[in-house]
């Protein structure tokens, strides 16, 4: 049963929101600094980056066979192609939520430029990157691992995240972000990533049409829901690690967002937990990796799955990826369409807005495979108090 949306996020006091192996880092002013240019050469890995034995990576995980969805004919309006593409997407999303898309219409030169600027940014001195430092509790900015947020099981990576708003009035938002945070020399950065995010938003709306068709709701339903999306773009950089068998580039988690469109370089490292084992998704520079997040799992009333995944690192080569996280506009209520709810399929998750779940994952809970479950339980508890 749906509950009324809670407008603010009160403090969480229940103990299960802070698993003991994922403790929040105390704000003592002595947080460890992850300087990739130094640590990439060290053979003695700091303990904060060493993961428990049961979570240590399998570097040679078997390949996961995910469907390759050709969007060319679908985007050109071919109804037969649309049916076939929606079938492939539906099958994948019921099993593990991952699929690849090719002939997606995104300019290859734009993708190459976006990757090149990842290299340019993360090769800057740490002091320069810190001009865009991400503050605790925020979802945007530069993060050198999550050293200011957690004190154990830290990821071996750097990220730069920034907001994308599909509203017409925000057409220069990313360009302004880079100019304000990094200076005039980064104007071209802003232009490239503004164009890239606009392309990702367009692509994601097309994928939402396929998801609507595959679920048996109108083709326009989810497209319209996300038309004015307020999304997050993230640049990921995984430096080499001399002991890659001890650490992880990104720990096991499910994305709390609605849809992730990921472009990998040729290095590889993405792994998905399917049928009780970790499997890799091999790089394909012509394809985007797409996966369902927790918010869309709620929108589908649990029919589609948000699946556990992680990233591993290696000792030789940096790995980089571009991740566009599609999110609904802040005032949109996350509630499934009526076609997906009946007496045989009652509501699984309560109504909520994306900012509520985002704040939950940024300030109160480290995203994992139980994020949506814990968040849902907390909302239910609050509704009864």
From TrEMBL:
GO MF annotation, one: gibberellin 20-oxidase activity
Record keywords: Iron, Metal-binding, Oxidoreductase
Pfam family membership, one: DIOX_N
Catalyzed reactions: gibberellin A12 + 2 2-oxoglutarate + 3 O2 + H(+) = gibberellin A9 + 2 succinate + 3 CO2 + 2 H2O
Pathway(s): Hormone biosynthesis; Plant hormone biosynthesis; gibberellin biosynthesis
Necessary cofactors: L-ascorbate
Domain Fe2OG dioxygenase: 228-328
SUPFAM superfamilies: Clavaminate synthase-like (SSF51197)
Protein family: Belongs to the iron/ascorbate-dependent oxidoreductase family. GA20OX subfamily.
PANTHER family: 2-OXOGLUTARATE (2OG) AND FE(II)-DEPENDENT OXYGENASE SUPERFAMILY PROTEIN-RELATED
Official protein name in the record: Gibberellin 20-oxidase
Organism name: Populus tomentosa
